Amino acid sequence: VGMGNDEDDVDALFDESAGLGIRETILEIIMADSGAEEKMASGDDGFEGIEKEFTDCLVNLCLTVLSNALHTIEESVKTAASSSSAGAAPSNNLVEQDDSSDDDDSKPSPSNRQRAATEPSALPSGVSKRFIDDTKSTFGCDVLSSLIRILGQAKTNPHDAYHSARCLGVLFKGCGNSHKARARRDLDAKSIISAALEVGSRSHAKLEDASRVAMMALVTDDEGSVEEEEGETTEMENERLGEETEEEQQQDHELSSVMEQSMSADSDERL
Fold first, then answer.
1. CB neighbourhood size of 176 (10 A)
2. Rounded to the nearest 5°, which phi and psi values hold at 66?
């Protein structure tokens, strides 16, 4: 995926105007794998075993493509933000950086890796939320639920869990506090990520780093989401107040009609 304008990159991932259906196919395969555990119990003999092996390979490829696409967009946003804030650097500084980079190995140290794992970065505001909502409306399934389910299989399938954790680490940033609260409350995301983090610490360093990023994104509130949710709450309160006002008006109308009937009955008795 190219590293051009961040808005173009976002459109490339979330827009299917070209009619290729790549995004839909990838998401459909990932979310259709929800019955993989049931298929596993049916046995791996003959054609079923070959089909399962092919399906597992296909799911792994789709998770790889999705996680790479999300991270490419995230990196392009970070690069654009840093270049706009830093401006043009002097050429002699670049030479000094190149000279110092020759002394160090390309391999990151454990401290640098841990710092990079918890470094905050996010997609443009609302993009993660739009992606989750659009996927829900298109397929009727929750992409967060599917990714968390795959992450929950970290003991038996750590490679798929790693790519799932990478996706969650990006999607949890900017998806809104409501989606995070739902993931913690309904999907048990916090304990599943903790279990994956433990598995990664024992046997899979990349899974450990990706799970740490996902956990940090899950427990950190989005800044812009608070105002968004307050606006939604205000709208709900206004609707509730409007309904109460209509009920009060209806009750007043009924009361006035009852009083009129009572007064007319009293006047008839006097006559």
1. 22
2. -65, -45
